[in-house]
Design a protein that fits this description.
Blueprint (H helix, E strand, L loop, with lengths): L9 E9 L4 E8 L1 E3 L5 E3 L3 E8 L2 E4 L2 E2 L6
Antiparallel strand pairs: 1-2, 2-5, 3-4, 5-6, 6-7
Length: 69
């Protein structure tokens, strides 16, 4: 299933804990995300609940192009 959202670039990970194969909690610093309508969403540093779908990590329907290590 292809996503209609563009990737968010993550500059730095400060904390990452994986609860199970498909769910993780991370504290990361992101640059920005693009909505389908082209508007930019700025994201500050903050805690995020992630879900892994088809091998990619998603948060709030956005796909991140840097997988937490």
């Amino acid at each position: 299933m292809a996503t209609k959202f563009k990737a968010i670039e993550v500059e730095k990970w400060e904390f990452f804990e994986q609860f199970n194969d498909n769910t993780a909690y991370a504290l990361g610093i992101t640059k920005h995300a693009m909505q389908p309508d082209g508007k930019t969403i700025r994201r500050n540093k903050g805690s995020i609940l992630w879900r892994k779908i088809d091998g990619k990590w998603y948060v709030d329907n956005y796909v991140f192009n840097t997988i937490p290590q």
